What does this fold into?
Amino acid sequence: MKRITIIIEKDEDDYYIAEVKELPGCITQAKNLSDIFDRLKEAIDLYLDILSEQKKTEITKTTV
It folds into this structure.
C-alpha cells in the first residue's frame, strides 16, 4: 500500500484547501474540516479514474 501526503491549509476566505502532493492537481476545498475529507476522497477517486482511463489500466483503490 502506498502512503500519500495531504496538505490542508485555510485560505483568506476561511475555506480549507486540501492537496495531495503525490497527485499533481488533485485539490479540493470545503468550508469546514468535516466536509474536506469527504471531498478529498471524491477528488482522489476521480483523479485515479481519469489516470486509469488515460493509461488504459485498472487502478486498485482501498479505503483507509
